Amino acid sequence: MLRAAGVGSGDEVIVPAYGNAEVAEAAVLAGAMPVFADIDPRTYCLDPDAVDAVVTPRTAAVVAVHRFGNQADIAGLHAVGQRHALLVLEHAEPDAPHDGMAQRQAYASYLNGRLTGVITPARGAAHSHQYVVRVPGNGRPDRDAFARAVRARGVDCRVPVKTPLHRTPKYWRDVELPQTERAADETLALPVDASLTRRELQRIVSACNALGGLLQPAF
Predict the structure, then answer these.
(1) Going by C-beta distance under 8 Å and a sequence separation of 6 or more, which residues neighbour residue 151?
(2) Beta bridge partner(s), residue 130
(3) In the CATH scheme, what is the homologous superfamily, with its name and number, of domain 101-211?
(4) Sheet with 12-16: strands ordered across
């Protein structure tokens, strides 16, 4: 899409640093320079204000990535694009199997209503891929220690983004993206597979709540 739009050498493409390298790599393959902007802490998608702040005369495009079933603020990004005459493209995560999607949504709703040991996802997230929570440190076990303890209680979990791209050797940038870095430090993906049993769901809740007991502060 970038090449077809005429994006190439000397251009900059604004992309998120929170996630995999696929979109940044696409900019590089088109001959452009990926520029990282910060994310909205609720959706993990590009924040239009943060995008606006990194636009330069060389910026040609913005690529929004929809993350964890959350939708990027496309209207806000298009407003930035119109203001600066930029191309705004969308990139979705790979589709999850449709079988069992309603069950996954039901499980996510169950967890939303019962988890107190972590910060649950924003309302409206589709959870078709991952149910991603936050584990803030604030004096309690950090995310990695929390994950180890949850696994020890028989709950499968994984860190969705271990290192943001602007902190990796290939894409290192001397920029500060506080919401991106915070999300990489705090997020944890819990299972919402359609194959889960009620007992397994209850185990997730009891393990997380026993370890955390955190209130859910507003961002």
Answers:
(1) 157
(2) none
(3) Aspartate Aminotransferase, domain 1 (3.90.1150.10)
(4) 33-37, 12-16, 59-66, 87-92
Contact 76, 48 (CB under 8 A): yes
Tokens for 103, please give them. Answer: 């069950």
CA-nearest of 165, 150, 206, 199 to 16 is 165
From residue 143, how far is each of 14, 66, 176 by CA, in Å?
29, 23, 21
- State the pLDDT at residue 98: 61
Per-residue confidence (pLDDT) for residue 215, from 0 to 100:
40
Tokens matching residue 161 = 């983004």
Query: In this structure, which topology does domain 12-92 adopt according to CATH?
Result: Aspartate Aminotransferase; domain 2 (3.40.640)
206 phi and psi, to 5 degrees? -65, -40
Distance of CA 9 to the CA centre of its chain: 29
Q: What is the pTM of this model?
A: 0.89
* C-beta of residue 106 within 8 angstroms of C-beta of residue 197: no
Is residue 191 within 8 A of residue 217, CB to CB? The reply is no
CA atoms of 72 and 153, how far apart (whole Å): 34
pLDDT of 55 reads 98
Tokens 């929390």: give the residue.
Answer: 146
Q: Is the pLDDT of residue 91 over 80?
A: yes
Domain definitions of the chain by residue range: 12-92, 101-211
Residue among 188, 113, 176 nearest 150 (CA): 188
Residue pair 204/155 in contact (Cβ under 8 Å)? The answer is yes
